[in-house]
Amino acid sequence: MNMDFLSNLLAITGVIVLVFMYNQWRSRTKSKTTKKTKSPPEPEGAWPIIGHMHLLAGGKPIARPLADLADKYGPIYKINLGVQPVVVVSSWEAMKECFTTNDKALASRPDSSTAKYLSYNLALFGIAPYGSYWREMRKIAMLELLSARRLEMLKHVRISELSTSIKQLYCISSKKYGSGKGVVISEWIEQLTLNIITRMIAGKTYGEDVEARKFRKVVKEFMFVSGDFLLSDWLPYRVLKWVDMLGKLKNIKRIMKELDLIVGSWIEEHVGRKREESKEGDEQDFIDVMLSVIDDSYTQDHTRETIIKATILEFHAIVEREIRKKLKCLHTDNGGKYTSNAFEAYCASRGIWHETTVPGTLQHNGVAKRMNRTIVERVKCILKMAKLPKSLWAKTARTACYLINKPPLVPLNFVIPKEVWSRRNVSYSHLRVFRCKAFAHISKKNRQKLDDKSTPCIFVGYSDVAFGYKLLDPVNRKIFRSRDAFQEDQTVADFEKSTKLRDVITPDLLPSPELSQNARYDDVQQEVPELQDPMREIEDQEKRDEGHDENGVEQGEQPP
């Protein structure tokens, strides 16, 4: 007995030592290969096998220790969950940069045993890696299943199920028709949602029988395990992939086996119904549409039945996750950029109802057309007053649109649009005078010890990607963003008090008194002087401040 215990102890110790040695060897080889690449900061104290998992323990919500690490290492840092490196992004600016500007680079998904077993070997397009199969299945789902036309055709399904559920709720809770007992609203809403989804997908409705309870139980378990993870996913050793210490993998296989039988019976019913002669007016659910669109030779990766099963599970997950307020309706004109297949797929993928105006009816789009004229006139006025070249019209237009949402508007009964949209008070402390002289801070890594800490620039707008200002560098002729910038005219009030107002508002921008009151402005040809180069203006101003004239000669000194 003692010999068996010692042999087992030696075997376990040997395995642990081998695992530790392999982990050290792999970390060293990986550090040599990735030494030249720049990686985010990483907290210290990673253990050989579990990595930084011990930093996330302690009974607190996982967001709190991650936030503490972000305060210490910055908005972007790296941790090791097991031996798998994970990048943590904790600022909305970086999130926008990742999922809007560089969304294609992050479109794929990591390999996971949970995802593999729950999605028919990655046939579910919401979990499938980015590639040709994902693009084709997303195109089918968004254009054939979730398009505005298809949802409008199935509108009566949602109305019918909602009406039936409300009647059942009244009968159960009423003392006249039922027992008058209380009703658990969460369970009632869950059953209503499940019936709507099931009827839209398969044309079936579940009541209170044994089959319905079994189906609801399997769907609940599927949604629960889809957010769980297996310990083997975070271990690099392929020999441990088959180890199921907590029985989670066995539970996942059981759930998918039961769910596969239910979904498979739905498909068999629709295939048998399709073989029979059907009328044109028959109602088509999602499975009917997918059977007509996808054939056996459509893709080489998965069979037609597998694709349909995976897509059905994806729709269940989408509706279950849709619990927050999002954009529901979008009203546009019939322009090509709004009626393309790509834009329709974009709206359908996010559940946005797209409405278009009637062709030839300008009244439907009058507000937008009038606002377009207003923006154009503001751009022209800003460029004229600031004496900037027309090449900056795009930055000027963005600034004009940014400022339009700040003051109260008449169509909104003198309510500020920004407050209506964000439900927060609008701050005006960050507003600056367009074209004012600014000084952008130069970081230590970009300057020498005795160099200037700032560089003169021109303020040309507000950053729409991250917090900061858009500044024009007059020397390098480039526009960049900077958070640490100092403007000479900090606010509009300071600008009005400064002497620069006389230099900006020149007589050529004012109406001439020589013009007759009856003369039309369009008939008068005025010679508008060429706009001064703002970069040249800044250089001349610096020379004047140093005691030089515009030619670079000191005042009081005769030029050669």
TrEMBL record:
<dbReference type="InterPro" id="IPR012337">
    <property type="entry name" value="RNaseH-like_sf"/>
</dbReference>
<feature type="region of interest" description="Disordered">
    <location>
        <begin position="508"/>
        <end position="560"/>
    </location>
</feature>
<dbReference type="GO" id="GO:0004497">
    <property type="term" value="F:monooxygenase activity"/>
</dbReference>
<keyword id="KW-0479">Metal-binding</keyword>
<dbReference type="GO" id="GO:0003676">
    <property type="term" value="F:nucleic acid binding"/>
</dbReference>
<protein>
    <recommendedName>
        <fullName>Integrase catalytic domain-containing protein</fullName>
    </recommendedName>
</protein>
<keyword id="KW-0503">Monooxygenase</keyword>
<keyword id="KW-0408">Iron</keyword>
<feature type="transmembrane region" description="Helical">
    <location>
        <begin position="6"/>
        <end position="25"/>
    </location>
</feature>
<dbReference type="GO" id="GO:0015074">
    <property type="term" value="P:DNA integration"/>
</dbReference>
<dbReference type="InterPro" id="IPR001128">
    <property type="entry name" value="Cyt_P450"/>
</dbReference>
<dbReference type="GO" id="GO:0016705">
    <property type="term" value="F:oxidoreductase activity, acting on paired donors, with incorporation or reduction of molecular oxygen"/>
</dbReference>
<dbReference type="GO" id="GO:0020037">
    <property type="term" value="F:heme binding"/>
</dbReference>
<dbReference type="InterPro" id="IPR057670">
    <property type="entry name" value="SH3_retrovirus"/>
</dbReference>
<dbReference type="InterPro" id="IPR050651">
    <property type="entry name" value="Plant_Cytochrome_P450_Monoox"/>
</dbReference>
<dbReference type="InterPro" id="IPR036397">
    <property type="entry name" value="RNaseH_sf"/>
</dbReference>
<keyword id="KW-0349">Heme</keyword>
<keyword id="KW-1133">Transmembrane helix</keyword>
<dbReference type="Pfam" id="PF25597">
    <property type="entry name" value="SH3_retrovirus"/>
</dbReference>
<dbReference type="GO" id="GO:0016020">
    <property type="term" value="C:membrane"/>
</dbReference>
<keyword id="KW-0472">Membrane</keyword>
<feature type="compositionally biased region" description="Basic and acidic residues">
    <location>
        <begin position="533"/>
        <end position="551"/>
    </location>
</feature>
<dbReference type="Pfam" id="PF00067">
    <property type="entry name" value="p450"/>
</dbReference>
<feature type="domain" description="Integrase catalytic">
    <location>
        <begin position="256"/>
        <end position="425"/>
    </location>
</feature>
<dbReference type="GO" id="GO:0005506">
    <property type="term" value="F:iron ion binding"/>
</dbReference>
<keyword id="KW-0812">Transmembrane</keyword>
<dbReference type="InterPro" id="IPR002401">
    <property type="entry name" value="Cyt_P450_E_grp-I"/>
</dbReference>
<dbReference type="InterPro" id="IPR001584">
    <property type="entry name" value="Integrase_cat-core"/>
</dbReference>
<dbReference type="InterPro" id="IPR036396">
    <property type="entry name" value="Cyt_P450_sf"/>
</dbReference>
<keyword id="KW-0560">Oxidoreductase</keyword>
